[in-house]
Automatic annotation (TrEMBL):
Family of the protein in this entry: Belongs to the SWEET sugar transporter family.
Name the record gives this protein: Sugar transporter SWEET1
Molecular function per GO: sugar transmembrane transporter activity
Membrane topology: Multi-pass membrane protein
Residue spans crossing the bilayer: 65-88, 95-115, 127-146, 158-179, 185-206
Keywords, comma-separated and alphabetical: Cell membrane, Golgi apparatus, Membrane, Repeat, Sugar transport, Transmembrane, Transmembrane helix, Transport
InterPro entries: SWEET (IPR047664), SWEET_rpt (IPR004316)
Free-text function comment from the UniProt entry: Mediates sugar transport across membranes.
GO CC term, one of those recorded: plasma membrane
Compartments in which it is found: Cell membrane; Golgi apparatus membrane
Cited PANTHER family: RAG1-ACTIVATING PROTEIN 1, SUGAR TRANSPORTER SWEET1
Length: 219
């Protein structure tokens, strides 16, 4: 596979990942419409923002403009979601504590990788490992909701558009990582494919009621 295939996969990664991030716009519209954060989870916005910023650092260190562009836009979108959530949230202190806590972890990581790991290749490997583990954790965390879905026999609490875009984005990044021979990119996206397939099965087995609105699980 040559440069043309790499460019095609790069465009697919960009389009599908931004589509995945863009599904949060429905939550944004809901917050403005209801002037509240009811039925909207905060933690996914925060963890995705940290994940984007981590991969953005990896992209700059690696010199990969696909990673840089996707994660710069993703981090900007998630930051907007966080600020709007904070504005409408009645529990601002809790939101602030969670945000400051994860930002402190991010700052410690930045200091570690840039001050204590002077060798660039070693820094790239360790940062890649951190990003991979964080991404895998994010993809696997929704599996905890499966018990509730099976118990209630309802998929009203999961988003079908998000499932589709997650599957397409994960598949694109897996192929992109394999083409670049970068396992730090390829491997953490395999759980994204697997969890999306599980969600597709749940949608097939427990079809959502079109007369009932989508309602996210509480954090």
């Amino acid at each position: 596979m040559g440069p043309a295939a790499l460019q095609l996969l790069s465009a697919a990664c960009l389009a599908f990942t931004l589509g995945m991030f863009g599904t949060g716009l429905s939550d944004l519209r809901q917050m403005f419409a209801t002037q509240s954060v009811e039925n909207i989870q905060f933690l996914p916005f925060l963890t995705t923002d940290v994940n984007n910023l981590s991969w953005l650092s990896y992209g700059f260190l690696k010199g990969d403009w696909t990673l840089i562009l996707v994660n710069a836009v993703g981090a900007a979108l998630q930051t907007v979601y966080i600020l709007v959530y904070f504005y409408f949230s009645p529990e601002k202190r809790g939101v602030l504590v969670k945000t400051m806590g994860l930002l402190a972890v991010l700052l410690l990581g930045y200091c570690y990788f840039n001050l204590l790991v002077p060798d660039v290749s070693t820094r790239l490997a360790r940062l890649g490992l951190f990003c991979s583990l964080f991404t895998i954790t994010m993809y696997l965390s929704p599996l905890a909701d499966l018990a509730k879905i099976i118990r209630t026999r309802s998929t009203q609490c999961i988003s079908f558009p998000l499932t589709v875009t997650t599957f397409l984005a994960s598949a694109s990044w897996t192929l992109y990582g394999l083409l670049l021979q970068d396992l730090y990119i390829a491997i953490p996206n395999i759980p994204g494919i697997a969890t999306s397939v599980v969600r597709f099965w749940l949608f097939w087995h427990f079809p959502p009621d079109p007369n009932r609105p989508y309602k996210s699980l509480q954090a």
